[in-house]
Amino acid sequence: MEDGRIIELFFERSEQAIAGLSEKYGSTCMRIAQNILNDRLDAEECVNDAYLAVWNSVPPEKPDALLSYVCRIVRNLALKKHRANTAVKRDSRCDVALDEIADCLPSASDVESEFESERALESINAFLNSLDKESRALFVRRYWFSDAVTDIAADLGKSGHYVSVRLSRIRKKLKKHLEKEGIAF
Fold this sequence. Notes:
By secondary structure, the chain is mostly helical. The protein has 2 domains: 3-85, Rna Polymerase Sigma Factor, Chain: A; 93-181, Arc Repressor Mutant, subunit A (Orthogonal Bundle), CATH 1.10.10. The protein contains 9 helices and no strands. The protein has helices spanning 3-11, 16-37, 40-57, 66-85, 93-102, 114-130, 133-143, 149-156, 160-181. Helix 1 packs across helix 2, helix 3 crosses helix 4 (66-85) and helix 7 crosses helix 9 (160-181). It is globular and about 45 Å long. It starts with a helix and ends with a helix.
């Protein structure tokens, strides 16, 4: 089913919208939630909560890119659940991925306003657009989808060391780019 048709079904308030969304993007949503939470039951709960959130937000929202819209909701819900699950302890590979990129990004306490936050987001998007396709894919898989370095390496047919070095270089470039743009750390 095409994205446009799924969105139409949401506007019609048809339950087929959820079925279509689940059929088309359910496995991607589960992968995102599972990578962050590392628990199948929590991941399923998170994905179902995301479907409810989409149901409640479309309409009035009419997302241009349905996959991105749903993935953002799943990721945010999974991160929220992860924070709740690990408030006292640290464990998952999500923590490792977030720690890796933390030095490159401004912290919430350093961002003085919504404008600054938007400026940082635009700068990061510009940086990602400047990368070659493989580097951009590495970055997104590691820091958006929270894929393990070993999984990325296996998919590329490369060593884990190769992927780690590439990610390290990309983070250094991102940090330089943000410094050049005047984004505070």
